[in-house]
Design brief:
This protein is of the alpha/beta class and 387 residues long. The chain has helices at residues 13-19, 60-72, 84-92, 109-118, 134-140, 163-172, 185-188, 223-236, 242-253, 255-277, 293-299, 314-323, 353-359, 375-386, and strands spanning 77-81, 100-104, 125-129, 145-151, 176-180, 198-202, 216-220, 282-283, 306-310, 328-329, 339-341, 365-369. The longest helix has 23 residues, at 255-277. It is globular, with a radius of gyration of 21 Å. The structure holds pyridoxal-5'-phosphate. Pyridoxal-5'-phosphate binds at residues 83-85, 108, 110, 151, 155, 180, 182-183, 202, 204-205, 214, 216.
Length: 387
């Protein structure tokens, strides 16, 4: 089982990001974790091996990434997967037919699709609720509820949920609180410290940060839960290749540094957009006008680089989406480069139109992932595109 090196917890977050989970390689002392391109490991004798038997089960490059992210999240065990969705699919294998889940109604479109188009047919059932209101969450829990799955802030509506309140509700019902921490990252929010059982990420986004791989990772504190996840990771086999792990591990070294700049650019751009478009057009948890700004300030140590604009109509959204030159029109987020997207038709294309309508996800919405370029260039780019 990939358990963190406990001594790594003695260091601050930036130091952990660079060193946690990694030790100089024993042959030459290479400071960087080698890329272990191997499917199997030679055994000294029958039943005598170095803890590695077959690479679906364990790979040292993967272990370094798992330890690194687990330490950043304040957990004890990490499990890397081939994608964020592969990670969630494996987490859901902890459960069995008949189990019920309460899910945030504005979760990532792919999460909704996995539940609605695949797992529902395997006997799991899901209730979608507005997790901004803990009372609604509590009311949706049933005797069959085994998990509460939330995201905060959500994509693209930037709804927050109170993770301590969610943990209390989950524990009162013997359910697991499972938090998608992709948006905030452990730099700004650590759900395990607030009572979550499982934290997971699309490492594709901020953790890797360079838009050159797809991956997922789950982190837990409890040993018994870790045993079950490790069994699933090996048995179901949605594991990442070592090179993707190596890239993500390179990425996490600069995570605190990058998040600082994403946050600085996000705050400045959001303030400028309020001046340019008016308060009601800009959704960003760092703005005092955000209805949950107080919760954001309490629960997060930064607000990040994700901003949603409500431009009023699909035509107006198209004008901005097609008018930018520094921002690139693309799905995904969290890379060093700025991206712009149309959630209604892109990330949330698989969510039924009436469901989107009901939660206020409109065709005029545009989502910005502010990169770490010079803020003046991002401002000038949007200024030109807004016209
Ligand atoms: C991208 C994303 C996912 C899915 O991860 P993949 O790596 O694309 O499979 C899940 N949750 C959030 C919030 C995401 O942004």
């Amino acid at each position: 089982m990939t358990r963190i090196f406990p001594e790594d917890l003695d260091a601050g977050l930036a130091t952990r990001a660079i060193h946690a989970g990694q030790r100089p390689e024993p042959h030459a002392g290479a400071i960087m974790t080698p890329l272990y391109l191997t499917s199997t490991y030679v055994q000294d004798g029958l039943g005598q091996h170095k803890g590695y038997e077959y690479a679906r089960g364990k790979n040292p490059t993967r272990e370094a990434l798992e330890r690194n992210v687990a330490t950043l999240e304040g957990g004890r065990h990490g499990f890397a997967f081939a994608s964020g969705m592969g990670c969630l699919d494996s987490i859901m294998k902890l459960f069995r037919a008949g189990d019920h889940f309460v899910v945030g109604e504005n979760v990532y479109g792919g999460t909704f699709r996995l539940f609605d188009k695949l797992l529902r047919h395997l006997g799991l059932s899901f209730s979608y609720v507005d997790t901004r209101d803990p009372q609604r969450v509590a009311d949706a829990m049933t005797p069959a509820t085994r998990g509460l799955l939330v995201e905060t802030p959500t994509n693209p509506l930037m709804w927050l949920c109170d993770l301590s309140a969610m943990a209390e509700i989950a524990r009162a019902h013997d359910a697991l609180l499972i938090v998608d921490n992709t948006f905030a990252t452990p730099v700004f929010q650590r759900p395990l410290e607030l009572g979550a059982h499982i934290v997971w990420h699309s490492t594709t986004k901020y953790l890797n940060g360079h838009s050159d791989m797809i991956g997922g990772v789950a982190v837990v504190l409890e040993d018994a839960l870790a045993d079950r996840l490790q069994f699933i990771q090996n048995a179901a086999g949605a594991v990442p290749g070592p090179f993707d792990c190596w890239l993500a591990l390179r990425g996490t070294k600069t995570l605190p540094l990058r998040m600082k700049q994403h946050d600085a650019n996000g705050r400045q751009l959001a303030a400028w957009l309020v001046d340019r478009l008016g308060e009601s057009a800009v959704i960003y948890p760092g703005l005092a006008s955000h209805p949950q700004h107080a919760l954001a300030a309490r629960q997060m140590s930064g607000f990040g680089g994700m901003i949603t604009l409500d431009l009023g109509s699909r035509e107006r959204a198209r004008q901005v989406l097609e008018g930018v030159r520094v921002f690139a029109l693309a799905e995904s987020l969290g890379g060093v480069e700025s991206l712009i997207s149309h959630p209604f038709s892109m990330t949330h294309g698989s969510v039924p139109a009436d469901v989107k309508q009901a939660m206020g996800l409109t065709e005029g919405m545009v989502r910005l992932s502010c990169g770490i370029e010079d803020i003046e260039d991002l401002v000038a780019d949007l200024d030109r595109a807004i016209g």
